[in-house]
Amino acid sequence: MMEQTYFVTRTPEIDGVHFVHSDKCQVFPDMQTEELGTFEGCEAAMDVARGRYDPINACALCCPKCYVKRGDADAAA
Ligand SMILES: [Zn+2]
Q1: Quick one: pLDDT band at residue 61, thresholds 50, 70, 90?
Q2: In angstroms, what is the span from residue 51 Cα to ligand 1's centroid?
Q3: Domain ranges of the chain
Q4: What is the mean pLDDT of residues 4-11?
């Protein structure tokens, strides 16, 4: 698996959630981000992000494996 550099958004987005993106993301946010490091997968990046921010989620586009769809609450968008 190819290594990628992952980032987390400093400013919380929807519902106060910080999102993890890879540097290859096509929708990389136009806001301040913090580098998490270079990992082989988003799982490790999520672990690092979790230690810094809460709550966090992964970008559905660049980290689909780690993206958690919020099924229950807050379905209104
Ligand atoms: Zn992304």
Answers
A1: very high
A2: 19
A3: 4-58
A4: 97
